[in-house]
UniProtKB/TrEMBL annotation:
Lineage of the species this protein comes from: Bacteria, Pseudomonadati, Pseudomonadota, Betaproteobacteria, Neisseriales
Entries under Pfam families matching the protein: ABC_tran
Residues covered by the ABC transporter domain: 5-237
Entry keyword annotation includes Cell membrane: yes
Keywords: Amino-acid transport, ATP-binding, Cell membrane, Membrane, Nucleotide-binding, Transport
Entries under PANTHER family matching the protein: HIGH-AFFINITY BRANCHED-CHAIN AMINO ACID TRANSPORT ATP-BINDING PROTEIN LIVF (PTHR43820)
Name the record gives this protein: ABC transporter ATP-binding protein
Amino acid sequence: MNPLLDIKDLKVAYGGIHAVKGIDLNINKGELVALIGANGAGKSTTLKTLVGMVKPAGGEILFDGKPTARLAPYDYVGKGLVLVPEGRGIFGRLTVEENLQMGAYVRNDKADIANDIDRVFSLFPRLKERRSQLAGTLSGGEQQMVAIGRAMMSRPKLLLLDEPSMGLAPIIVQKIFEIIRMIAAEGVTMLLVEQNAKLALQTADRGYVMESGRITLADSAANLLANEKIQQAYLGE
Ligand code: ATP
């Protein structure tokens, strides 16, 4: 079976800065894959390239067996490739519920959209309580929930999460990762970029390690957690 996502020799440059220097990465349907690495390694750039926000300088991205190169930026969500960006990007002056509705803008099946809002509220009871509150007045953890919930509203085939734990208190980080596990259990395929490498690898099936624009290691999450070099460099052990 073809992988859901197949990245081949991807290169990305910002002017003269080579942020991604020819990476291969694939994800099978139903997998949760972590991408870890230091600041500036090129992880966010990889995610942005996957949703068309940044154009590759070389290589190929196949999604569901088809190249994404010709997709227009607004086509990605409709195809099921959805990014929850670092810093969340929610609409602060809309309510929680309006934010979730925005996530379904590519759809016009009203009854199903209402069902999916209920499904998001069952994943995030906290958001249900706050459905009429302006999203900009929520706590950081609640805003991250809105961002993930909004992405779920587009029924993603591949959900890309960029640093979901960023800036959150440890207890809230645990909560967000519980939700990531619940979403994975529903069968949503995910690529998770995280500074918190330990938690990411404890949650993921497989992991890739990125250093200075290159993938230097790819293995099962269990093997990466047990790898001494990884422990020293990324797991604070
Ligand atoms: P972080 O966790 O800090 O976001 P990262 O692994 O996601 O790190 P990227 O954000 O992808 O790394 O950055 C990779 C490299 O590309 C860095 O050297 C960064 O300075 C550079 N870079 C990122 N965005 C731009 C941009 N818009 N213009 C120029 N250079 C950029």
